[in-house]
Design goal:
alpha+beta, single chain, binds guanosine-5'-diphosphate, protein biosynthesis, 8-stranded antiparallel beta sheet, 33 strands, guanosine tetraphosphate binding, 7-stranded mixed beta sheet, globular, GTP-binding
């Protein structure tokens, strides 16, 4: 490992954490890969639970039912496993068409991501969206080209697509030997080994290079000749793997395998262990916080309502950034100055919640509370600092909430406010006093909102279209320019839940026009909280 010898237990614990997410378009194989990773990590009892959890949850509330009906996970769970002395925290991001802001925010809590591509499909719409969120924070990305056991695209074309569509250099660290039903394994370009498809990585066969004559004896003359030529071309034409460039997010190492056949997964996991960074220093408003500091800091990136609709309990997901979290600690919620007791921090495994004894930088813990903790909150042992970078993303769907019983209007206002604080939806109040608009990035969030309003607040609602499709947060060096814009566009300017100004547009074309007409303003698709 290329890490300096840790100087303290804090540094040592931080150095052995790898906190990551898998980003993928639906069907690329994320679930299968997750299962296989957990298996490798020795969390055997958990593998299979990844799928089983879809069935195991009982009908605890309506919005959990949505999850079951659609067979998707609304919850972002955290799966932890150990391997080779390292602790891997895999934060689950639902990669389905119906994704939500939770998916985005989860990516603010990881230090690396694995991008899974279907070998036959390459970069798909959702892959790209998720990648762009990673890029916002320069998150290093390892690429796993999955389904190599099936007919797929030419690997060179895939490399090219990554480079062209994502503007990310693609450095193959392995190269497929044979294709589809003829797929024999991969050649490890960095360590000159042949990884046979039906063997564990312990059976990797060391070779002198892609032109080692022994390869022909292993895979046949034809496949060996093809590899010789292709590997030569890959080494000459593709960028070389470069740890520094990977860590700064400008280059991705590319692995090939088949999650279904459990091939290439060990190689990928080795790559995560070797190359993915441990927790890194994180920017707060007043200073940068290093993971090896001995005082606890962390931030809340997700809040989930308790499964039990009769209780207003919430679980806040805290990403630990420095120090050690111990059961029974009292932490300071910087936003309010309040003390928050952490009596029973929870680790979220795929199957069970377990009471954690301690958590270190890179770990994620759940903190039960009654609505005190909000997304973006920083917790410390007393210091007044706020982590930046838990963002709001401009919603892609805007709706008016239609109330079936007008008597409930006031109650609805309170409920929407609370749910907006929790991050279930975003809420925009037009300056002209028109009814508020809810904004979400995925349809699923609307379904969750609807069922929770009914189950938890007793408010049945429907949704109506609005004249708008696009939202941008506004800022300007000159406040007067903002005021002029707001005055000129009163019907199309609103405040978000924190009082920040947004412009609402009927179309993206309108947005572009406004941006041209108001060069003194800035229009942001992402807003950082705090
Ligand atoms: P997710 O939607 O990204 O979580 O994808 P899944 O892991 O559920 O996989 C989608 C489908 O692809 C399932 O039918 C899997 O069995 C299949 N699949 C996943 N990995 C592979 C693979 O390596 N080879 C083949 N042939 N099929 C795969």
């Amino acid at each position: 490992m290329d890490l300096p010898l840790p100087a303290s237990p804090f540094a040592a614990e931080a150095a052995r954490r790898r906190t990551f997410a898998i980003i993928a378009h639906p069907d690329a194989g994320k679930t299968t890969l997750t299962e296989k990773l957990l298996l490798r990590g020795g969390a055997i009892q958990l593998a299979g639970a990844v799928r089983a959890k879809r069935d195991a949850r009982h009908t605890r509330s309506d919005w959990m039912k949505i999850e079951q009906e659609r067979g998707i996970s609304v919850a972002t769970s955290v799966m932890t496993f150990e391997r080779g002395g390292l602790v891997f925290n895999l934060l689950d991001t639902p990669g389905h068409e119906d994704f939500s802001e939770d998916t985005y925010r989860t990516l603010t809590a990881v230090d690396a991501a694995v991008m899974v591509l279907d070998a036959a499909k390459g970069i798909e719409a959702q892959t790209r969206k998720l990648f762009e969120v990673c890029r916002l924070r320069d998150i290093p990305i390892l690429t796993f080209v999955n389904k190599m056991d099936r007919e797929g695209r030419d690997p060179f074309a895939l490399m090219d697509e990554i480079e062209k569509t994502l503007a990310l250099d693609a450095a193959p660290v392995a190269w497929p030997v044979g294709r589809a039903h003829d797929f024999a394994g991969t050649f490890d370009l960095l360590h000159h080994r042949f990884l046979p498809v039906d063997a564990t990585e312990a059976d990797a066969i060391p070779l002198s290079g892609p032109d080692d004559p022994r390869l022909a004896a292993l895979v046949g003359a034809e496949r060996a000749a093809a590899l010789r030529e292709e590997a030569g071309l890959a080494l000459a034409a593709c960028p070389e793997f470069d740890l520094a460039r990977f860590r700064e997010g400008t280059l991705t190492p590319v692995f090939f395998g088949s999650a279904l056949r459990d091939f290439g997964v060990g190689h990928l996991l080795d790559g995560l262990a070797r190359y993915a960074p441990p927790p890194r220093p994180r920017a707060a408003d007043s200073r940068e916080v290093a993971p090896e500091e001995d005082r606890l800091t962390g931030f809340v990136f997700k809040v989930q309502a308790n499964m039990d609709p009769n209780h207003r309990d919430r679980v806040a997901f805290l990403r630990v950034c420095s120090g050690r979290l111990l059961k029974g600690m009292r932490l300071r919620q910087v936003r309010t100055g309040r003390q928050v007791p952490v009596n029973a921090p929870l680790f979220f495994f795929a199957k069970d919640r377990q009471v954690a004894e301690e958590a270190w930088p890179g770990d994620v813990v759940g903190i039960a509370n009654h609505g005190t903790l909000r997304i973006g909150d920083t917790l410390t042992e007393g210091e007044s600092l706020n982590f930046r970078g838990v963002p709001s993303f401009a919603p892609e769907i805007l709706r008016h909430v239609r109330l079936e019983d007008p008597m409930l209007a006031k109650k609805l206002r309170t409920a929407l406010s609370q749910l907006a604080e929790e991050g279930v939806v975003q809420l925009f109040r037009p300056l002209d006093g028109a009814p508020p608009v809810v904004g979400v990035v995925g349809q699923l969030q609307l379904d969750v909102l609807q069922s929770r309003l009914k189950a938890e607040y007793g408010i049945p609602v429907g949704f109506d279209a609005t004249p708008w499709e696009v939202v941008r947060w506004l800022s300007a060096g000159d406040r007067a320019a903002l005021d002029r814009f707001a005055a000129a566009n009163r019907r199309d300017v609103a405040e978000d839940h924190d009082g920040a100004l947004v412009a609402l547009f009927a179309s993206d074309w309108r947005r572009r026009r406004a941006e041209e007409e108001w060069p003194m303003l800035r229009f942001h698709a992402v807003r950082e909280q705090h």
